[in-house]
## 1
Amino acid sequence: MAAKIISGVEVARQIREEIKAEVEQLKAKYNKVPGLVTILVGENPASVSYVTGKQKTAKELGFYSVQDDQPADITEEQLLALIDKYNKDDSINGILVQLPLPKHINETKVLYAIDPDKDVDAFHPVNVGRLVIGEGIFLPCTPAGIQELLVRGGVETSGAHVVVVGRSNIVGKPIANIMLQKAKGANSTVTVVHTGTKDVGHYTRMADILIVAAGRPKYVTADMVKEGAAVIDVGVNRIGMTPEGKAKLAGDVDFDNVKEKASLITPVPGGVGPMTITMLMKNTLAAFKNSLGIK
Ligand code: NAP
């Protein structure tokens, strides 16, 4: 059986259309739009490119968007004061501090200073706790994107055995917690495997839905996958350069062979990756609606 290949580019485009339409409706009713500030410290080229992408998407969706670039020598105190300013600013619903920060600044302290209701990356411990008890206003962006791909790909999650490879705080643990919830698009039986697991293949072969976030190129081979499983490949690994001088990417799954066995699979690039910025926008919209008391 050849798998259905789910395009994250296409799903992300659909979600952005929906967000844009909702922003227009809310603007007509409340005369307000969601506000997102990105705070970039220094000029790390990768960070500049990420922030530019987020700003561009926010503007396309009709958001009020503020790009607050700060010099690399900003002090921790000044940065905390800046966050406090945006915490108190009613026109801002989402505060995004682009990581990494320079070494003289304590990243944890900075991220924890963001008002949890404006923490659209959803990394604040309050939001981690809300997610675990099933009361999240928004979910961390990459895991939320994975869930959207499953739901919009028509995968039945309720009663499915989900196996997650990886237990990081940004992908593995949150997606495991999301799929565990007694909720639509979840209600799964969840197993998490990691480097301490004795026989990873024993568990992955039992998965109806296999989510791989290990950061190991082509780690999951066809013999580790059950016939007909839905496979979500989160990995992004640089494995060389293309003749045009661009980075050559591979996922954590041996795509060419696994696609012959799975029922659904996401490619790398073009699968989970394109969902992340879109889910950030969805979170900013959710924070905006939360501030207006809309469920
Ligand atoms: P991470 O922090 O390095 O965590 C990797 C996890 O995988 C760890 O829990 C590790 O186990 C586990 N692991 C590694 N090798 C393994 C093996 N051989 N068998 C079983 N488990 C293994 O990585 P991450 O931040 O979660 O990211 C994972 C991948 O997703 C990376 O390739 C990253 O680039 C990609 N990613 C993509 C997006 C996106 O597309 N938007 C976003 C985030 C991450 P231990 O805990 O035991 O060490």
## 2
Amino acid sequence: MATAASARVYNNFIGGEWVDSKSGKTYENRNPANTDEVIGHFVASNEADVNAAVDAAKEAYKSWRLVPAPKRAEILYRAAEILVQRKEEYSKDMTREMGKVLAETRGDVQEAIDMTYYMAGEGRRLFGQTTPSELPNKFAMSVRQSVGVCGLITPWNFPMAIPSWKMAPALVAGNTVVLKPAEDTPLSSYHYVQALVEAGLPKGVVNIVSGDGPDAGAPLSKHKDVPVMSFTGSSAVGRIIASACAPDFKHVSLEMGGKNIIIVMDDANLDLAIDGAVWGGFGTTGQRCTAASRVAVHKKVYGEFVKRFVERVKTLRVGDGLDPKIEMGPCINEQQLNTVMSYVEIGKKENAKLLTGGNRLNSGAHAKGWFHEPTVFGDVDAKMRVAQEEIFGPVVSVIPFDGFDEAISIANGVAYGLSASIYTKNVNQAFAAMRDLYTGIVYVNAPTIGAETHMPFGGTKQTGNGHREAAGAAIDFFTEWKTLYIDYSDKLQRAQIDNN
Ligand code: ADP
């Protein structure tokens, strides 16, 4: 186990070189399950570092945009192969820096692999449209063009998957990138970049600057030579980034909070619904933007559901995610743990019924980490703060309801709109829910988590600003349409005039 003295220093990657910060400052990245362990020292970047990275990306863009897309894609394909080889090593490193259990960090690296293969495939697609012109002897088509340097700012809960969601489509489309990873999980982003570099990515095409939001993220979002910003994180920071991008009319994609719901109807398979609620609520210690932090249950089955759900939650084993017996890891850091504890107090004050959990775990095997008990509130009113605000931790609010319409109105009655799910065997109800749940993602008979890389990902209302990540939707964001008209009539032809 590395200590502060023995841990390695990780530099920024700018213009194809691993370089120090111009500030000379570094910060420690510690294991949230055991804060004695230092994962590494990372550069605390400042505006000068960001400027150097953007300059390198701008220079590299001149030639990268001209590399044929299938050739760009071959590099992504090779990077995915490298990730496959290193999946176990990178997953373990991710558990050490982020805390989630090994099965989940393997899933995170796999998601990066899937996304990288998917976008490698896009290198031979990147389809546009050809369509007949309204005039004779004239040809019309639209092609995608790259945009330039993309600034990418990512959160800590999916330390490799989310950077890959942004980097792979940006790169295959011919853009160059500067990534500012979350300060708590830079190592997994380094691993992804390392795979791209070894796969043969030219100098300057990918750059990484570590550091905190205000010092390293803010200068990137404001930089005049960065026409595209893609951000995943809190709605509060998303608003700051959107404002920073507005004066230059940058393309900006924001993926933010959620207050996702599982609806359990009275005809649901309760075993299945309980499995889903446990995984949706406590997977990743509830620290997913798609976490099921609300479970609304029909009053006819409420008593039975709550009894069995709470029994299951009580058995969850909390601890170091590297231990295969452990089912839930720590919170990412002290601040997040404090947020969780403060919401437990808020719930109690609101008279939500604390059914299990509610305490920090900080003795014995938990003494050195940011652990919290899996916590369930029952008899929650949909308007309570614990049922309205994103907690981003292992706290689930169970809300009783009377009928389908009430369930839909509870589901839609929050500021966010990322993911929702319904458990029912009634096909009419399932389709009505698919139509009426105003979220970017709806699941039927499955929990709110489990996005696949070839489907659009994102949400409505305060969750996003209308863009989607993953799938072809990501290509739409990282490219711009160019419409081409080729007139081979040898005469002036006026659209809308000469053909009417
Ligand atoms: P989370 O709650 O997931 O940590 P944040 O929104 O705080 O979400 O952070 C997400 C990312 O945004 C991180 O990489 C963080 O460093 C960055 N960030 C935070 N503040 C700013 C800011 N003012 N400008 C740009 N990036 C920021």
## 3
Amino acid sequence: MSKISAPRGTADILPAESWKWQTVERIAREVASVYHFGEIRTPIFEHTELFHRGVGEASDIVNKEMYTFEDRGARSITLRPEGTAGVVRAAIEHSIVGQEGARAKVYYIGPNFRYERPAAGRLRQHHQFGVEAFGVAEPEQDVECILLQMDFYRRCGVRDLELQLNSLGDRESKQRYRDALVSYLTPFQAQLSEDSQRRLQSNPLRILDSKDPRDQEFCAKVPPAADSLSDKSRVHFERVQKLLTDSDVRFRVNPSLVRGFDYYTETLWEVVAGGLGAQNALGGGGRYDALVEQLGGRPTPGVGFGSGLERLLLALEGQAVSLPRQDPKLVWLVSHGTAAQEANWKLLLELRAASITADMDPSGRSVKSQFKLADREQAGYCIVVGDTELAAGSAVLKDLKSGEQSTIPRDQIVAKLKELTAR
Ligand code: HAM
């Protein structure tokens, strides 16, 4: 029979690698909790309409990257391409936002699905750690999210980061900017890439994201978004920058940073990292003050970010940074003969009841191959039992790192190993 492989653009996370995932997820939960964000888990599929209304009809994600299908009840369902729309939907549905003055700060960790061309750091199923903060329109809330994100990277040990900032301003500023781009680019329309010619009508901001050299020449000269900002939006953006400077966070204002979602207003940001190649955005976010209303809630400001976990792990690897490893020490039970194996089986249960990570091979292999196995599984200690030990009511304890061994009474094994493995 032919083998079945994983779908293109997906990756299995195997036991040898999963400790890294557990570590970054633990750090994400720790940092979110320190900043007082509570966890939210929303479904990985939603009604397709949510993303059309939330992410935006004209965005690349909605246009060409969604996994959309009809379920057996003839409803159009989409695997979530990102986290924000579902979180906003849930916040409205459960009245987390909606009342006057309601505030909420949530975080999530989970998979997202985009039908993109797979490349290093670009998958069809990727995972994000993200946060969303609702109800506070002040720049402090933008900055709290940015600080949390940078703190996350710092705790993971990733270096060589650049925080890029831009502001699209409020709805009116954004419209003004869009008009300014269209008037600037229209005379050059025929020289733009085919995609950008289309975007000139549907989504001119996205032209700034284009990697096509035909577009880049013009993008370098477009009027900056800052020229279209209303006074209120300008003050907001200046305050964001001041708060970051006061917190010693370095940043660069990138006037052509627009990001791929229609929901953004005011502040936008992206963090890029060295050692990642072309897909160098570790994470990005921004403010979306109209989204809650757009999805049927009462007007509520919001801001947040999403950070890709695959890219974070790639950046750590590229920068040769090792994550702190906290694996429990494994105890391996080695038996010489069937009677010893039976005794060890009982001991195994006792060790596990005492929360000591322990294992053995019950297949009756030689002592030598049991030791080999212990080595391969990276055990810290072995307990060796044979007829002599059974008769004496003892066991041999071997420290596999130092090679030291000693004989200890059977009734002291659990306490002794508890002490050793806790270190
Ligand atoms: P995004 O920039 O599309 O934003 O994604 C956030 C991060 O997820 C990216 O910077 C990248 O690290 C990772 N990512 C995205 N797509 C892929 C992919 N195909 N393969 C691997 N990694 C990927 C959002 O999703 C917004 N919802 C962020 C946000 C939250 N804005 C406000 N709140």
